Give the backbone structure.
Amino acid sequence: MTSGDFTATAREYYNSAVHEMYKECWGGENHHLGLFDSTDDFFEAARIANENLAAKLDIKDSDVLLDIGSGFCGLPRFLVQNTPCKKVVALNISEKENEYARQKNKEEGLADRIEVIDGDFNSMPFSNNEFDIMLSQDSMLHSPDKGMLLKECARVLKDGGRFVFSDILEKDTLSREEAQKIYSRVKVPHLATFDTYEKQLQEAGFTIKEIQDLGSKNLGKSYQAVHDNVLSKREHLINNRNIPAEVIDNALNGLKFWVEKASEDKIGWGLFVGELR
């Protein structure tokens, strides 16, 4: 598959029946992971993950931020409500998610500070050196060429600008057979590793300020929570949201496998902080 094929696949995936399932079972705010160190509640853990990422951004009141792969816009809403930033631009591939995000932003009185744009983060519709700060939360795994993506991020970020992102990563212990099952759930060609992101960030022109291992345990707990939410709402999703049973059951099987591999420490979760040289 070409890069364009993977972009089309990601758009189709998030525009499909999966959209309603994610909206119902991730709570309609984010569909990212959570930090469970001080809670057992998934939605509280997701809020703590927002706080952890936001604390790395060093935001000033004149800053314009870019969130790539913004999903339901939960993180942009958190940032405009809890930091002094001037504005967040949210770039996301799924028109369905973006329509939902715009409506939710409007309902919460935040539409004047969040601009949602339909687009592909592998080829961004922005000028060079346009943004003060960039961020991404568990979405860059969908890029077929993460090294080129990081160079595209460097292009639209101002010199000295900070880029903070978290992503799902594979470990060396993951077999190729297991990897293919991991990739198939979210229709991606591969996952990055801690080492590849560290190398590719530097090659793209970033100085690495911090790499934080967020833990396979947190990844596993997050996907277990989502699995349990989907399972508990299975009949509701079929009867009231018109999601085919096959789609739900495939999702449950995929989530279960991810939980198993996280418990075996074969997939992980990391956060990276870079500054553009």
User: Anything to note?
Assistant: The beta strands are 64-68, 87-92, 114-118, 131-137, 157-170, 206-213, 267-276. The chain has one domain: 3-276. The radius of gyration is 18 Å. The domain at 3-276 is CATH 3.40.50.150 (Rossmann fold).
